[in-house]
Amino acid sequence: MESPRFIFRVLFAVFASFSILMAGCTTTVPDTVTEVPPIAEDINDSIEDLDEPAVVIEREDPTATDADKQDEQLEQLIADGQYKEVIQYTTPGGPENLEIDIVVKDDAVESVALKGIKPKEISLKMQTAVNTALQDLVVGKNVADIDLPDHISGSSLTSVAFKNHLQDLIDAN
């Protein structure tokens, strides 16, 4: 009896061949052929023929008033800036102080850092693990899209403390 791996390879090869065959059968040739214009001899000739700019660069609107800028900021969940705060949460071993440093720009988290203040040994392990995991879970993500699990790297207390802090920042704006 043939191994399942061999059977899988044979089925895959048959399927791939059939797919290629079918793709070739469904290709149609247009009835009319459109003539392609010749390449411009001079690059300036081709640039002048463009209906739209080749590159669009968005710049801040110089006519925008302070009120317009404030309205734009109000639409953000969290105003741009660095938010550094020491929070306290309770563990079975007693209260822990945790410094949370978050940098936000255009509602995206640019950086995050957790640092325990004189933590107990187990808390230090958990805080370090959560800090490491948060780099992948929140950095570069839009604040509205962040959905953290209740346990990050085996830690529920540090995870919940961070989630609550992030929600407090959103609620404060």
Describe the structure in your own words.
This protein is an alpha+beta fold. The protein has a domain at 78-172: Sufe protein. Chain: A (Alpha-Beta Complex). It has five helices and three strands, in the order αααβββαα. The chain has helices spanning 4-25, 43-48, 66-75, 121-137, 157-172; strands spanning 81-91, 94-105, 108-117. Strands 1-2-3 form a three-stranded antiparallel sheet, with helices on one face. A hairpin with a 2-residue loop joins strand 1 and strand 2. The chain is flat. The termini are far apart.
Explain briefly what this protein structure is:
This protein has 173 residues and is of the alpha+beta class. Helix content is 41%, strand content 19%.
How is the biggest beta sheet arranged? 3 strands, antiparallel
> What's the β-strand tally?
3
CATH topology of the domain at 78-172: Sufe protein. Chain: A
Instruction: Write the CATH architecture name of the domain at 78-172.
Output: Alpha-Beta Complex
- Mean of the pLDDT scores? 76
The shape, in one word, is: flat
How much of the sequence lies in strands comes to 15-25%
Radius of gyration: 28 Å
Q: Structural class, judged by helices and strands?
A: alpha+beta
Order of SSEs, N→C?
HHHEEEHH
CATH class of the domain at 78-172: Alpha Beta
Number of helices: 5
How many angstroms separate the termini? 67 Å
Main sheet: strand order? 1-2-3
Low-confidence stretches: 43-47, 52-59
The percentage helix is 40-55%
